[in-house]
């Protein structure tokens, strides 16, 4: 498998593509971040997400992100963010820099639950 990944990387670089563009399923990672949000804090939580997105979309390795809101007011997670990053390292570096420099507010009662995933079935 390592040899196959090395071959994909070499081929993609020779074609002028990033490894992520050459084979999304083995290179990209998916961030799924669930948010427990008190009803009275929903607008604040969405504004905080907007500010985080504005910072993160400028970082190396960022691909995309979408915020989802539950249709049910009693759902455990009112907001769920699904994002794609080229590598776990890119995500970790970007979020570490965001924590250090972006000065995002902490919102009482909002509890994030971020985790990185690989796509294993399409």
TrEMBL record:
Origin: domain of life: Bacteria
Transmembrane segments: none
Keywords: Signal
InterPro entries (alphabetical): ABM_dom, Dimeric_a/b-barrel
The keyword Signal is annotated on this UniProt entry: yes
Cleavable signal peptide: 1-22
Ranges where the ABM domain occurs: 29-95
Gene3D superfamilies: 3.30.70.100
Keyword field contains Signal: yes
Name the record gives this protein: Antibiotic biosynthesis monooxygenase-like protein
């Amino acid at each position: 498998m390592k040899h196959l990944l090395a071959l994909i990387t070499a081929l993609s670089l020779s074609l002028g593509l990033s490894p992520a563009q050459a084979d999304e399923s083995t290179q990209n990672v998916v961030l799924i971040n669930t948010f427990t949000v008190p009803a009275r804090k929903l607008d604040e939580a969405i504004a905080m997400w907007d500010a985080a997105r504005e910072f993160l979309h400028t970082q190396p390795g960022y691909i995309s992100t979408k915020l989802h809101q539950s249709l049910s007011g009693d759902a455990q997670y009112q907001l769920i963010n699904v994002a794609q990053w080229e590598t776990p390292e890119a995500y970790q570096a970007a979020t570490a820099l965001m924590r250090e420099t972006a000065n995002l507010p902490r919102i009482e009662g909002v509890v994030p639950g971020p985790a990185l995933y690989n796509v294993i079935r399409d």
